[in-house]
Amino acid sequence: MPLVLTEDEVMLVDAARGFLAKSAPVSALRTLRDSGDTLRYTPSVWSEMAENGFIAPHVPEAEGGLGMGYAAAGLIAEQMGHTLAPTPFLSAAIAAELVVQAGSAELKADLLPKIIAGDLVTGFAFEEGLRHNPAGTAVTFKDGKISGTKKIVLDGVGAKLLIVVAATDNGPGLFLVDPSAAGVTVRPLDLIDSRNAAEIDFADAPATPLGDAGAAKAAIARTLDVARALLAAELLGIADEAFDRTVAYLKERVQFGRPIGSFQALQHRAARLYARLDLTRGAVLKALRALDEGDKAATMLCSLSKGAMSKLAYDVMVEATHMHGGIGVTDELDIGLFYKRVRVAGELFGDAHFHTDRIAIQAFGI
């Protein structure tokens, strides 16, 4: 399992970095936030991402995708972390994975090209509480109808399709719901990181099974692992960017007649973060490679990378805020935007505590 990038992956990183720096910089997120736009992304930028092959690049060639693998998707997610790019990238990756894993042949042929082209923004209606809990599902499917409430549906505002996890007599199932259908109420949520999210009520809303009911449980588990690995990659990009900005500030901020970066106490704090970032970078890439290679340890590695990056990214942001001094807590400084994104991304699909417990159970049975 190589933990270095291939030549093609280096080219992908360069292309994604250049595109995002130009078309989706941090200032774009700030503008969307201040505008009050509940969509929280720019459709024209999303279309450009599709043209560049940046949407769901992990979809196999046999299913009409680029077949670049999960590592490629993770590398794009990492670059998006550097600019806090406001796009439905994660939702598209999740939707594509669910369709690949559980969709019928007809639905794959219909939905995957639209997702990859950026034409079908899809919300994954999974969470039912404010904390990640994959074990229980109270939303139900019966007689072709779904009832219940889903919380924190990413990109649920403006979505053209919802993929809903609901309980059936035979266990969890995956269902397609039109958000404009009768019985569906979408309420925008104002998350602190300005991400597009919604709470959605279903009151006997018409729903169609995504595919074979027997494939749903495994498809959900696999997709959650993919989502966790991609979030870990995004968190790595956020932490890297915040760290680089902080080091640059330490070099330019002068106090007591010298740059504050010359003080040993701050040097040691920065050095410790640098070492942890370098170590955790390998864990993130290993999780993505494990998904690509079908490694039986992929599930644990995805939890390891998500849990470790949730904690590390938070620690980086605390230090970044402290080292910037008073301006570190002002809205005018972009560091605050990175901090808020870390707080939300760290909670999505399990925080550090959730994944520590999960690893303990998987590895040691405790």
Automatic annotation (TrEMBL):
SUPFAM superfamilies found in the cross-reference section: Acyl-CoA dehydrogenase C-terminal domain-like (SSF47203), Acyl-CoA dehydrogenase NM domain-like (SSF56645)
GO molecular function, one term: acyl-CoA dehydrogenase activity
Cofactor dependency: FAD
Record's keyword terms, sorted: FAD, Flavoprotein, Oxidoreductase
Oxidoreductase in keyword set: yes
Gene3D superfamilies: Acyl-CoA dehydrogenase/oxidase, N-terminal domain, Butyryl-CoA Dehydrogenase, subunit A, domain 2, Butyryl-CoA Dehydrogenase, subunit A, domain 3
Domain Acyl-CoA dehydrogenase/oxidase C-terminal: 220-360
Domain Acyl-CoA dehydrogenase/oxidase N-terminal: residue ranges: 6-119
Family: Belongs to the acyl-CoA dehydrogenase family.
Name this protein carries in UniProt: Acyl-CoA dehydrogenase
Organism the protein comes from: Sphingomonas crocodyli
